[in-house]
Amino acid sequence: MLDNRIIDELKTIVGADNVATDRQDLICYGYDATQMEFLPDAVVHPGSPDEVSAVLKLANREQFPVYPRGAGSGFTGGALPKGGGIVLVVTRLNRILRIDTENLIAEVEPGVVTEQFQLEVEKLGLFYPPDPASLKFSTLGGNVAENAGGPRCVKYGVTRDFVMGLEVVLPSGEIIRTGGETYKGVVGYDLTRLLCGSEGTLGVITKIIFKLLPLPEAKKTMMTIFDSIDGAAKAVSTIIGNKIIPTTLEFMDHATLQCVEKRFNLGIPASGRAVLIIEVDGDRDLIEKQAARIQELIKPLGLVECKIAKDAAESEALWKVRRLVSPSLRDVNPDKFNEDIVVPRSKVPDVIRVIEKIQQKYAIPIVNFGHAGDGNIHVNIMIDKSVAGQEEKAHEAIAEVFQAALDLNGTMSGEHGVGLAKQPYIHLELKPAQVATMQAIKKALDPNNILNPGKMFPV
Amino acid sequence: MDPLKRVENELKKCVKCGACRAHCPAFATFGKEPAVARGKVALAQHLLKGDIELDDATYAAMSKCLLCGSCVEKCPNDVPTDEIVVVAREALSGQRGLTTFHAAVGRVIRNRSLMKFGAAAARILGPLFFRKVPETSGLRLRFPLPFLGGKRHIPSIAKKPFLDRHPEVIPGEPGKPRIVYFVGCMTNFCYPQVGEAALALFRHLGCTVIIPKNQQCCGLPGMSGGDLDTVRGLAEKNLAELERYEADYIMTACATCGGALHKFYPNLVGKRHPELAARLKAIAEKTVDAAQLLQKLGLNPEETGAGSDIRVTYHDPCHLRTRAITRQPRELLQGTPGVELAEMEGADKCCGLGGTFNVYHYESSLAINKMKSAAIINTGADAVVTGCPGCMMQLSDGLKQQRNRTRVLHTLEILARSIRP
């Protein structure tokens, strides 16, 4: 518990209106998308990097934990205050500071909502590709801290690939800049890449410099239905093997299709065992050619149907199938564990087969969909927590799913991070020497362990 | 926490993903989590568990909701937060008693003659108390209620309420639909011209129009304060009145009244009073919005020379949008000679009225309304058109605050220009 003296000091730093200690406020900053909940002692909304710095200095002096938070939409508990202390909400820092159309860069504060930033740059004919599913509400600071991905990664890469520089308040309270505004730069360690995906354990991001691209002239969406998961997976490697890199290659397995079809009746043929939504973007003539070539390439792979959108409305209709997945899953079981393993593209069918076996072994429904283009599969383990023993079974199944991904040279998280949720499994992927190296970095930057303690590494 | 027990299963559906953050107008102005749907759901869950109190902080959080339903529409898990908030407010008012304001609202809306008396008194005594602003300034009547800080512009009150102007049954052509018109208080007392337009349009189509004399307030102002006893009482009276007629349709030209009859009566009153459920459902199924019905009956607007060319922009009232009535009014407007429709940015965003939200959070309500006014003004339209007299009042207020002269009209007023008398 923080005593009143500390609360008063926090109020002096950020203003009384920006410190909340009512139980109601604590509840509202104690959850995220994981279904876990921990109440902080106070919620603090700083309005400037200097205020963030002063809060961290106070935390060091008084030794209380600080949990940085954006929109609180994470899937692994990265912003949850497990262990009391304060939640530091950065959403008041929400300005787009500049968009430089000459150098194709932008500088933003961490609380800017991802889609809002995309729309602003697009108005200027520019493009910020990272598109996590939560883009309408997640913040850019959170995207950087978690190194968020999304469907467009297959062509453009993840958030990290667009971060050129950062302003960061270190756990000590010191404000530093990393990277910069140049595309090249080899002076010193690459702290920018270290901080991207560090899950708020190494510093609080207060400014971000992003690289931008020219906005592609047009895009084309196709929905392709295959008679087997192998056909769909083979399509992915065939398309890329033929030197076409689509913007997105989203896939849904048979269990997913059944869920969506049962609830929304979209007319997906019964012989369809897997769906790939393929999108290409670029020059108008080029995408026509690419779409035609893709069709030709995938025809022999058990293609049941191929729908090509003629306009934005038709494209939206095709994407709707993907968007309906989430609401449909609830019909299977009320609770889910949403894991985001990644395997090399060509191993997607192999990992799906192993997951099918795990599903049979534990008799728990598992529904798979995700970003086939980069081998990132959302494995949804559907359970009913009110049924005794199901949650334990789910945890065992999750460990086996992670092991399966690792056995195929993959990783246990593509875009959600470790946080609290994957902490128990981190030793499956990281060897003791790797963990020790990471913890040495943490210790060097945060000797008192005040910033987002208890995350990532098992305590 | 008995009332919350009724929504226990709905509360379980929320997975705290945060999608509601993108769509909530209250969150957009308050910026903090207790103002957004998932925050309120979390608080309701904790109320149900009994580990927070029905204290001021809970009350404050639950009051920050316009009941616009945009979170419900966009929720991946179909969490009916609007209903949850009403039930939470019911729990709060059950324990703490209604606020003086909501108690007064309840008393007025429960009693038609009191409302009528109040309206008459306000019309007669108004000039003594309220400043009449010159028409040239674009302002009209100012209504300096103390809790509004004297800023608010409200519409003037009609000399003769709409319900007193016409017989109960206005026969149409044989074989044509029989329509029961649920008028609503705003139309009755403040915008009778909307009622006149509705009457003209449906008579033009040969319909028999029935205007039940004893219809009451729909009760939504009471619902907004969690006063579900008042809503139930009104729902029962309205049911009895509406059931008296063999109607093909129950028609509303007020999105809010339509929302009450179509959605909130069955969902909120019905769940609380199972003995009424079947009757409420039967009424709900017959309830249609005027624009929806006009399109269904094939209104064919003609060039009448009744009005000059007009550029309009359309605002979606929340209680039509959440019933997926967005296409029909636009198509009718576009099909009307001399009418040009220019879409505004965020046409589907709430105007900021939100029942009694605008009374308790007038500054936030104004901030929401300011964005709406800017979007309207940006279209360069001569008039903003909408299907809800409540929105009309709020839009007028917003535009007048901006010293802007864009007219505020009901969809039916525009459509009525294009029918031959």
Automatic annotation (TrEMBL), chain A:
<feature type="domain" description="FAD-binding PCMH-type">
    <location>
        <begin position="36"/>
        <end position="215"/>
    </location>
</feature>
<dbReference type="InterPro" id="IPR016164">
    <property type="entry name" value="FAD-linked_Oxase-like_C"/>
</dbReference>
<dbReference type="InterPro" id="IPR006094">
    <property type="entry name" value="Oxid_FAD_bind_N"/>
</dbReference>
<dbReference type="Pfam" id="PF01565">
    <property type="entry name" value="FAD_binding_4"/>
</dbReference>
<dbReference type="InterPro" id="IPR016166">
    <property type="entry name" value="FAD-bd_PCMH"/>
</dbReference>
<dbReference type="InterPro" id="IPR016167">
    <property type="entry name" value="FAD-bd_PCMH_sub1"/>
</dbReference>
<dbReference type="InterPro" id="IPR004113">
    <property type="entry name" value="FAD-bd_oxidored_4_C"/>
</dbReference>
<protein>
    <submittedName>
        <fullName>D-lactate dehydrogenase, flavoprotein subunit, putative</fullName>
    </submittedName>
</protein>
<dbReference type="GO" id="GO:0016491">
    <property type="term" value="F:oxidoreductase activity"/>
</dbReference>
<dbReference type="GO" id="GO:0071949">
    <property type="term" value="F:FAD binding"/>
</dbReference>
<comment type="similarity">
    <text>Belongs to the FAD-binding oxidoreductase/transferase type 4 family.</text>
</comment>
<dbReference type="InterPro" id="IPR036318">
    <property type="entry name" value="FAD-bd_PCMH-like_sf"/>
</dbReference>
<keyword id="KW-0560">Oxidoreductase</keyword>
<dbReference type="InterPro" id="IPR051914">
    <property type="entry name" value="FAD-linked_OxidoTrans_Type4"/>
</dbReference>
<dbReference type="InterPro" id="IPR016169">
    <property type="entry name" value="FAD-bd_PCMH_sub2"/>
</dbReference>
<keyword id="KW-0274">FAD</keyword>
<dbReference type="InterPro" id="IPR016171">
    <property type="entry name" value="Vanillyl_alc_oxidase_C-sub2"/>
</dbReference>
<dbReference type="Pfam" id="PF02913">
    <property type="entry name" value="FAD-oxidase_C"/>
</dbReference>
<keyword id="KW-0285">Flavoprotein</keyword>
TrEMBL record, chain B:
<keyword id="KW-0813">Transport</keyword>
<keyword id="KW-0479">Metal-binding</keyword>
<keyword id="KW-0677">Repeat</keyword>
<dbReference type="InterPro" id="IPR004017">
    <property type="entry name" value="Cys_rich_dom"/>
</dbReference>
<dbReference type="Pfam" id="PF13183">
    <property type="entry name" value="Fer4_8"/>
</dbReference>
<keyword id="KW-0249">Electron transport</keyword>
<protein>
    <recommendedName>
        <fullName>Glycolate oxidase iron-sulfur subunit</fullName>
        <ecNumber>1.1.99.14</ecNumber>
    </recommendedName>
</protein>
<keyword id="KW-0004">4Fe-4S</keyword>
<keyword id="KW-0411">Iron-sulfur</keyword>
<keyword id="KW-0408">Iron</keyword>
<feature type="domain" description="4Fe-4S ferredoxin-type">
    <location>
        <begin position="5"/>
        <end position="34"/>
    </location>
</feature>
<feature type="domain" description="4Fe-4S ferredoxin-type">
    <location>
        <begin position="56"/>
        <end position="85"/>
    </location>
</feature>
<dbReference type="InterPro" id="IPR009051">
    <property type="entry name" value="Helical_ferredxn"/>
</dbReference>
<dbReference type="InterPro" id="IPR017896">
    <property type="entry name" value="4Fe4S_Fe-S-bd"/>
</dbReference>
<comment type="function">
    <text>Component of a complex that catalyzes the oxidation of glycolate to glyoxylate.</text>
</comment>
<dbReference type="InterPro" id="IPR012257">
    <property type="entry name" value="Glc_ox_4Fe-4S"/>
</dbReference>
<dbReference type="GO" id="GO:0051539">
    <property type="term" value="F:4 iron, 4 sulfur cluster binding"/>
</dbReference>
<dbReference type="GO" id="GO:0046872">
    <property type="term" value="F:metal ion binding"/>
</dbReference>
<dbReference type="GO" id="GO:0019154">
    <property type="term" value="F:glycolate dehydrogenase activity"/>
</dbReference>
<dbReference type="Pfam" id="PF02754">
    <property type="entry name" value="CCG"/>
</dbReference>
<dbReference type="InterPro" id="IPR017900">
    <property type="entry name" value="4Fe4S_Fe_S_CS"/>
</dbReference>
